[in-house]
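Pilot study result, target chain (152 residues):
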Amino acid sequence: MKLYLMRHGEAYDAQVQIQRPLTEKGRDEVQRVANMLVKNNINIADIFHSGVLRAQQTAEIVAQTLNFQRKLQIMPQLNKPDDVDIIVDKISGFVDDTLLVGHIPVMPLLVSELVTNTKDQEIVIFEPASLVCLEKIEENWGIGWVIKPSLN
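Predicted structure:
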């Protein structure tokens, strides 16, 4: 099983747009990452986002690009750093390749918890629209690869 963890794309500052939708640059970065998923024949069975507009828009762009036919699901914990353990519990029940779209600091905390069993080590730097592929090997998670829009 593979778990894809993505930070939302660049969003407007709250002083400019209170709901903080994606900027044009943010949409472009997410689109570039989504195109790389298509180019590499990545198939995703489920997509969850935090329910916050910028994460929802990120998930929608990826879903549309992948021609994803299922309904996007909301997991509000993807925006709550204190709920990383709840997310880990939910992930333990996943059987299919899944994408989670969330926020800082949740995404790096989640990678750290899954890979090192501690939230104390930031092992991946999540710039906007970054995506990390984690692969489950027996009972352990490892980092398969990372895509950052700045590398594209």
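One observation from the pilot: The radius of gyration is 14 Å. A full batch analysis is planned for the follow-on phase.
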